[in-house]
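Here we describe the complex-level prediction in full. Unlike the single-chain runs in Section 2.1, the four entities below were treated as one system.
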Amino acid sequence: MAQDRLDAVKLDGTGPIYDQIRRSIRDLILGGTWPPGTSVPPEHALMEQLGASRMTVHRALVQLAREGLITRRRRSGTVVASPPTTHAMLDILSIPAEVERLGQRYAYEVLARHDGRPSPELALRFGLKRGEKIAHLVTLHRADDRPHVLEERVIHLATVPAAAAEDFARTPPGDWLLQHSLWSQAEHAISAIPAEPDDAALLDIAAGEACLLIERRTWNQAAPVTAVRLLYPGNRHRFVGRFGPYGAV
Amino acid sequence: MAQDRLDAVKLDGTGPIYDQIRRSIRDLILGGTWPPGTSVPPEHALMEQLGASRMTVHRALVQLAREGLITRRRRSGTVVASPPTTHAMLDILSIPAEVERLGQRYAYEVLARHDGRPSPELALRFGLKRGEKIAHLVTLHRADDRPHVLEERVIHLATVPAAAAEDFARTPPGDWLLQHSLWSQAEHAISAIPAEPDDAALLDIAAGEACLLIERRTWNQAAPVTAVRLLYPGNRHRFVGRFGPYGAV
DNA sequence: AGCCCTTAATTGCATAGGCAATTGGACGCT
DNA sequence: AGCGTCCAATTGCCTATGCAATTAAGGGCT
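The structure predicted for the assembly as a whole is:
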């Protein structure tokens, strides 16, 4: 049976050898021939079977391990991993890109801006420290003149000082930040809430209507960069993602 | 200046050499020292500078390229990539795991089940073919006895015949499918909708209240496996994901 | 049986060297 | 100047080999 498994791994002659090995084993796993827990032949066996060097076999297996399809331990060997917890990968495009992909005309306006230290209410809502200097912006994005999303954003001026001198007249803050700052960590939260009367008026919907709320906070190293609340009219927008079980499609 | 870039890459002595190189360059990029477009020293220069073999340097650079931080082309060399479109990675746990992570007691019940060919209305809602055999389930999941999520699911019996003989009395359909079927592709859509009266009654909320709707369809190779609509009371649940800009954190 | 020690299987990491593929740029020709 | 040709820089891939780290399993001792 170990021999069966060995024989099942085949080269197809297309592309680099390590990739042929990787794809062959991947297909055996995804096709169900090697269910989770199956032990994968050791490197030296594959090496002899396939006539490849150990480093080449190793490279294929390391990559499969990084993709989460197999787990490897010294001496114990390599086994097919259990399917991981499912990840849903959503593309969070910039809002202009999002609107244009829908084939609609994009426009936006800055409704309000206030720089300085946050009010207690604001500090609470965005998890800010009392004393820090921030820019606080409210922006409405439109698609074909209809309100598309209401954006409320805080920019940490200590991390992005250039934002203080930018009026965001031409570039919406999200896009501007992508070009003028770096981030290494982000946190997203998605929830559904009824629209507050004020927000509903701006979005041109009825108060209490279901809205999709995306909250994102971004850091570079440990320094906070920005925090944003994006409020979408729920019936007008949905986020779609397509992907495979192991990260890469 | 090329020499400056070379000098900036340093080993810190912790962990494998290839990983020291990888982290050193990654930090130069994420820290802004090497903005997008900066050209990374060629392998042989790094190799001499660091006293490592070319394969070791190569391994570090290949990994950075796979992470999307750099792009490499023969002859042209290696340059720091522009930040990619942002991905939001959400963990879609199984529902029992989700509830237990909140520290609440999990329970569920199958409210309805019907096997056979889909009604026109159902076929439309889940994108089914008229003639195909399916199992149709409605399940309510509870956390500490309060309704947590309402699940409506279709299982394609042609792809998962074993589901016909399973009553899902002990294991909810989502978890059962994870163990008894494979999937290679999934599509998620997230939106916010007001609760229909029937659904609201089951979820113990007011009709029209904002709910988070997750629709997921799953395939193995080209064969459809299952489709599910998960309706969460919006104010009781949010999906959170934390991640870096380049896929892996 | 229980416990410790040794052995060996297996993966992880690194080196050294070589050939292949791509392509920017220099060079020469018109 | 414009065009084609050739060269060389750079990355991509592979082989062969060796040592290190981990640890399952067996063997020996009490």
